[in-house]
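Final report, Chapter 2: Outcomes

The project's central promise was a pipeline that accepts a single protein chain and returns its three-dimensional structure in a standardized token representation, suitable for archiving and comparison. That pipeline is now operational. To close this chapter, we reproduce one record exactly as it appears in the project archive, with the input sequence first and the structure output second.
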Amino acid sequence: MLTKKKKKIKTERGNKIKKFFFGLIIAALFIFFAYSCLNMFLKLMDLNKELDSLESDQEELLKQRESLKFSLGESYSEGYLEKVAREDLNFKKPGEKIFVIKKEGENDSEDDLIEGEQTFVEKIQSFLQSFNK
């Protein structure tokens, strides 16, 4: 009878140890899965923020692209080319006189002065020849 009690106590003690380790393993797995889920959630939040940022950048770039397409289409028009030739390159039509109105405080440099003797065609030729040199 004594031996049965010892066996029963050993089996109870063994069962308690098994239950404790089983519970410990279950708790460790639960903590691991909770940590993994939290980590994935934080990564998902960061990726969503990055996605929102990239989408806003894409919208800005699409607007800029449309603006550049419009500017490119406009740059091939004859009116735009004439405007650039007159304002930026200081070209003039034959027989035309150009007057430059300077604001107060601006320096009179020779680069800003427009030569009155060259015609529009001569200026284009001299401009193109400057690239050949």
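Archive annotation: The chain has two domains: 1-76, 77-102+112-133.
This record, like all others produced under the grant, will remain available to the consortium after the project formally closes.
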